[in-house]
Write a structure and sequence with these properties.
Largest sheet: none
Distance between the termini: 37 Å
Structural class: mainly alpha
Strand content: under 5%
Number of helices: 13
Number of strands: 0
Radius of gyration: 22 Å
């Protein structure tokens, strides 16, 4: 008893470890908070350009040229234009909270592990990979609901968010809320790994050219997002096509991919139809999110 008391009063090892653990817990919490705040601010462009995103979605599903997709939305009117906007806004904010916070938490665990033999430069990417897997588990239902709502072919028999939720609930998880989970998990894990692995080196390279820290972070997030979007866009098209329908025939991932590839006349250019708009939007939102997150993290120490 006396030894423990003396150790605590003199700031012994146990007391220092407790303080260090508390400090790390605060830092980890701040990562979740900063991630959520930065992502919330980056939803403003998402709200503004949602009609553009919806145009792209129509192109992904129906393979229409842009003027036909715009014509469809104009004909449907302004009330239906923002149908399906709630899930992406909510998902974007929660996504940033979870993604940045989890990545930082996992990175801390990997860095402090005595059995870790991975180089320090690769740890952010590895932590991002596992954070992306968790992200896929949490947010696949959000994406599923969003894609069902945005498909105009569902308007008649699934007219509201409540009707969509009830319909998906009535199905098994694999066919309902977790339809297309495997391509989503692959896309999110690879995307998060690339983002956290590249944004630091890119930011340092840009800062070396004389840009301010805020501008460097924005450019880093935008460029990294461009690389990720170009690489993984086909997976997003596959997910949209797998999730847009409810009921009926439910083919597997490879069958859906072959069907999608044939519907695009086996053309990479057709597969990327509408991709330029998605990449532009992604560059803006991730540029803002990265700049805001890095600034908050720097200010909090």
């Amino acid at each position: 008893m006396s030894n423990n008391t003396g150790s605590t009063m003199t700031g012994g090892p146990d007391h220092k470890q407790d303080e260090e653990g508390l400090r790390h817990s605060v830092v980890r919490f701040q990562s979740y908070l900063h991630g959520g705040t930065s992502s919330l601010l980056s939803t403003i462009p998402t709200l503004i350009v949602f009609p553009v995103y919806k145009t792209v979605f129509r192109q992904q599903i129906h393979n229409n040229p842009v003027h036909q997709a715009v014509g469809q939305l104009f004909k449907e009117g302004p009330v239906k234009l923002y149908r399906g906007v709630a899930p992406p806004l909510l998902m974007r904010t929660l996504n940033g909270t979870l993604l940045f916070g989890l990545q930082d938490t996992i990175l801390c665990q990997l860095s402090s592990s005595p059995q870790n033999n991975i180089s320090a430069s690769a740890l952010p990417a590895l932590a991002g990979f596992w954070a992306g897997i968790v992200e896929g588990v949490v947010f696949t239902p959000f994406e599923r609901v969003q894609n069902v709502l945005q498909n105009s072919q569902n308007d008649r028999h699934l007219p509201s968010l409540k009707s969509v939720l009830l319909r998906l609930k009535a199905q098994s998880l694999a066919l309902g809320y977790y339809r297309a989970f495997l391509p989503i998990a692959a896309r999110n894990a690879l995307g998060s790994s690339l983002y956290f692995g590249l944004k630091g080196p890119v930011c340092a390279a840009v800062a070396a050219e004389g840009l301010s820290p805020m501008a460097s972070s924005f450019v880093s997030g935008a460029l990294t997002s461009m690389v990720i979007s170009l690489t993984l866009y086909p997976l997003s098209v596959l997910v949209a096509n797998m999730q847009a329908q409810v009921g009926g025939e439910v083919p597997g991932v490879m069958t859906c991919w072959r069907k999608l590839w044939r519907s695009r006349d086996r053309s990479v250019a057709m597969l990327y139809r509408g991709g330029s708009l998605v990449i532009l939007r992604s560059c803006i939102t991730w540029g803002i999110a990265t700049a805001m997150y890095d600034r908050q993290k720097k200010e909090s120490g």
